[in-house]
Write a structure and sequence with these properties.
The chain is of the alpha+beta class and 396 residues long. Helix content is 23%, strand content 25%.
Length: 396
Amino acid sequence: GHATYCRAPPELEQRLVSTMLRETGLGCGQYDPSGTSAISMGRGEVEVFIGTAGHTTGWHTDFQENFTIQLSGSKKWTLRQGTVQYPLRGCTPHYASPETVESQLKAARLSNPTFQFDQHHLDTNGFGDEESVVLETGDILYFPAGMWHKVETVEPGVSINISLMGMNYATLVCQALQHLLLKETAWRETIVGTPPGSETASKRSPSVTEKLELLLNGLPDVIRKLGSGQAGAQSILPPVLRHPPSFRLDDDSMGDDKMNSDDDNSSGSNEIDDSDDKSDDEANNENGSATLTDASPHEDDVMDSDDHIIDVECFEDPNGWSGKQPSNDCCLRKNPLATLMKMSEIVRYYGRKHSKSADDDNSQVYVLNVNFAGNEMQESAIRVLLRETGEHGILQ
């Protein structure tokens, strides 16, 4: 009547999550295997469950899209449709605590004000008949976010659950909107209230609510400008974010998976290359853990390698657009969320001294950052190193 579960090792989780996000399109297949990105549009985790006969996990919902694989034994799943679509949190009575109940209940009531915690049978919480299915060895079940389910172990065995998460449109748009607003001095102004007793009748500064009202009155114009003249949808989701990144998954001599990003991860290729080639770093890593090579290296690494620099003249994006000098009838629009700077403007202030030839090379290299001010760590949604050798090219 007992069960245990644990998080899968990184080399398994990275392979399964990256492949499943790519195949389902959740978060446009975007995934950061290192787990350090706070703004990746796709995320996921893998858990391993070991159950004994008679164990039951009571009715609950999850906020992830779930795929469960029955490796051995069998389980009975009973399901009922939930009333909360695209939930922000799950409803997990088996983890009930004051903090859990309140946070899950208020999240559910954003879209369903009548939602009741731990009441799958109520019409306010679910609809339709209960359906049951028994998973045998080798079976796979998909159950969407927000669906009520109860799980009973019939025969002892092992199962794997792949939970996938994708960024919602509200988060995506708010991040971009915050980036745009922070360009303006008025929106960057620190909120300072009026201390009690400091008001004067002769000279009174605008209150915080009066300032906020002025800012809010101008907000529709910002949104309208982004959505029309600045092609907001394409600016927020350029092609490189609408296509899954490319990863190279290598197998070492012990059979563990090593994950490295392709040199040209900006290409948006949909292929995963199972290669036997290993880098020096992989050969030196004998602990069996999964590793990731940063697709956007720090600036001092650029001096030694051109592997991560994209030549603008020969670049082609996932939609087939070519970086060659555009024709006269081609219209290029600057992304309002993009910031472009020369590499030489960065490296001159730090690090080791470089030769004049290296400095000349840096003057042709640009750093492009897109949509970074919408999160606390100012992590860029896109960071690309570009080289332009033409005298009058696109970047210049």
